[in-house]
Each structure stands twice: as C-alpha cells, then as structure tokens.
Amino acid sequence: MTQILQIHPETPQPRLIAKAVTLIEQGGVVVYPTDSGYALGCQLDEKRAVERIRRIRQLDDKHNFTLVCCDLSAIATYAKIDNIAYRAIKNHTPGPYTFVLHATNEVPRRLKQPKRKTIGIRVPDNRITQSLLAAMGEPLMSVTLILPGDDLPLLDPYDIRDLLVNQVDLVIDGGYCGMEATSVIDLSDDDPVILREGSGSVDAFRL
C-alpha cells in the first residue's frame, strides 16, 4: 500500500524524515519534492527499486539516471570533477541544474550511461530533499516524475498517489514545488554542452 506523508516544506519534521528514510533504506521507492517538481527516488545500490523506477517511467538501459547529492563533497565521491567543472557547479548549486560528468567506480555500472560511463549529478535547493539526504548520509538515485506519454511532471501528490498506487511505497507531500525540469549541462568534456534548457539559467554555459 502506498503511504503519503505531509512534510513541511520549510521546516521538515525530523520524525517524518526519519520514517521516510527508513522506508528508503528498506528498498522502497519514494516520490519526493525537489526545486523543479516531484521526482522518483531510491537507494543507490537497490537494484530492485531501480528496476521498479524503470518500469514506472518505461525507461531503457540507455537512460541517464541522476544522483541527487547534498553538497559538492558528495559529488566528488561519485563523479570525476576537474577545477573548471568544480567552479561551474559551485556557482550553480544548490539549484535547478543537472550536471553530466564521468562517473567514478562508486557508481554501479547499471546506472551509468553505457557508452560514455557518465552520470547525472544534482544538488536541489529544497529543504525536504536536503533533510532526506542528510539523514541518509548518501545520495538518492533519482529521475523526474514524468509518466509515459506526458510532457510535464505531475504536480499534486494525491494525484500521484492515486496514479501510482502500489507502484511506489511512499509519496511525500511537500506542497507545490514547480513544474519546469532542470537545465542539463554536460561537463564531461573540455567545453560545457547545454543538453536541455530548463528552469536554471544557462547563460554562463553558452560558448
């Protein structure tokens, strides 16, 4: 049965955060708020949970997953980051950006882009997300919650629960959190490449 938790977007209740983290650590799939809409997430090494997310989104094995991290130090564990990329990410996080970088060996092979061995990295500006990550002590494996056939992410957590009942274990109601996807910047080569222009300004990455 899919649970729903109402967590305050400005002052997340520690008891509810702990409840959500316990469920995630038990292999659960969670819908949670970010600064660019709701997302699907699970633990990094939970293969079954990752496969459940693939089925919900109908993703093939070429899809780039995103690791949602709490800060820059966490990013360095999972992605190879040079000085130029570090400065660019530092200037734009936390915020509505996803950065594509070469993955380190800490990232399971199945989550990397098969040919280029890259991974998306993200540090959202959302207090619920930050509280979850702090309590977990590790990143969330994540994708935006856009259902097959839809162009935009879902906005209402109760609609999400009804649509995904028994497909996800928990929906966190964090209120309205936007509906425009992140801007995606590829920093895996010498020059930045804008893969998608979303809610974050990309002016600093134009050549």
Written account of the structure:
By secondary structure, the protein is of the alpha/beta class. It has helices spanning 14-25, 47-57, 72-78, 83-92, 127-136, 157-163, and strands spanning 3-6, 30-34, 37-43, 66-68, 97-102, 118-122, 140-144, 170-173, 183-186, 193-196. It has a single domain (3-199), classed as DHBP synthase. A ten-stranded mixed β-sheet has the order 1-8-2-3-7-4-6-5-9-10, with helices on both faces. Strand 2 (30-34) and strand 3 (37-43) form a beta hairpin. Helix 1 (14-25) crosses helix 5. The longest helix has 12 residues, at 14-25. 42% of the residues are buried.
Features:
single chain, 207 residues, alpha/beta, DHBP synthase, 10-stranded mixed sheet, globular
Secondary-structure map:
Blueprint: E1 3-6, H1 14-25, E2 30-34, E3 37-43, H2 47-57, E4 66-68, H3 72-78, H4 83-92, E5 97-102, E6 118-122, H5 127-136, E7 140-144, H6 157-163, E8 170-173, E9 183-186, E10 193-196
Helix pairs in contact: 1-5
